[in-house]
Design goal:
Layout lengths: L4 H8 L2 E6 L6 E8 L4 E8 L3 H11 L9 E8 L5 E8 L3 E3 H5 L6 H20 L2 E2 L8 E4 L4 E3 L6 E2 L22 H4 L8 H17 L12 H10 L14 H9 L11 H12 L8
Antiparallel strand pairs: 1-2, 2-3, 3-5, 4-5, 6-8, 7-10, 8-9
């Protein structure tokens, strides 16, 4: 992807590039500042990428809480003659959850807020028959406004539309270590919102304990990561204020290896979470 900082500034006219992020897959991402001082994220992708079009459709056609808005989508021809699309998104000032966790685990109150945010999003996604498939710390923004935001619907699957992944693919789109077994085994018929609930469980376990539930960080290859995800039983942790172990039990249920052992729907998961809240003994942190 050959578009330069100068070429992007010429294309947008009223914006200046303040940061160029490392290349991510088939996307090039910039942070730009408009003349009115607003910051926006600009993604450059190849023209005709069906996954990009679906990502745009999911975000623009649905009111999903705590997901950055898409402001503008336009196609253009680069100086090398290649056609691309630029997507301008709302910028959320803050840091990724991954960066936050590098400094230490979340407090219980922060973790509960994160869990509620992700479950709220999953309830909406369930209603619109969509699975994010890539919920992980690097796709969650800890906003400076105190809220959490889920980003990057690039590999989301719309269950009521034709799949964009080859049916006989051995491995489905996901991030190893966070994707549910049915994603990396690519059991298409089993993929629904419960796959996202698994990832939410992994994220919350890591955020509240400071440890990944399955991985040690010493895994030699993807096969070992997949094997540990499918076989390792997470440790039984005591979370502050969770004297009856209802919260850790809920998180462990979200991470059940077999999809039928997780909550059957996002709505049921939310109901269970709300019941768990009443069992917690939390002070101000």
């Amino acid at each position: 992807m050959l578009i330069s900082k100068v070429e992007l500034e010429n294309l947008l006219k009223d914006s200046v590039v303040v940061k160029e992020y490392p290349n991510s897959g088939q996307k090039k991402v910039f942070l730009v500042k408009k003349k009115n001082s607003d910051l926006e994220v600009v993604k450059i992708v190849k023209y005709g990428d069906e996954r990009v079009l679906r990502e745009v459709e999911i975000v623009t056609q649905n009111q999903i809480p705590n997901v950055p808005n898409i402001i503008e989508v336009q196609d253009f021809t680069c100086s090398n003659g290649e056609k691309y699309i630029y997507i301008i998104e709302q910028y959320i000032e803050g840091e990724t959850l991954q960066d936050r966790l590098n400094s230490g685990k979340l407090s219980v109150l922060e973790g509960i807020k994160l869990l509620k945010t992700l479950l709220d999003i999953s309830v909406i996604l369930e209603d619109i028959k969509t699975v994010h498939r890539d919920i992980k710390p690097s796709n969650i923004i800890c906003g400076n406004d105190g809220n959490y935001y889920l980003i990057d619907f690039g590999i989301a699957r719309q269950l009521d539309k034709t799949s964009l992944t080859f049916t006989k693919a051995a491995i489905g789109p996901h991030t190893p270590g966070y994707g549910a077994p049915e994603l990396f085994q690519y059991s298409k018929k089993d993929i629904d919102i419960r796959s996202d609930l698994f990832s939410i469980g992994v994220v919350l376990f890591e955020a509240l304990t400071g440890e990944h539930p399955f991985l040690t960080g010493d895994e030699m290859n993807l096969n070992e990561i997949w094997y540990r995800t499918k076989t390792v039983v997470p440790k039984d942790y005591m979370i502050d204020g969770d004297k009856n172990k209802q919260l850790i039990s809920f998180i462990q249920t979200l991470m059940q290896k077999h999809i039928t052992r997780r909550p059957p729907t996002a709505k049921k998961a939310m109901e269970w979470f709300e019941a768990v809240l009443h069992t917690l003994e939390l002070g101000e942190e």
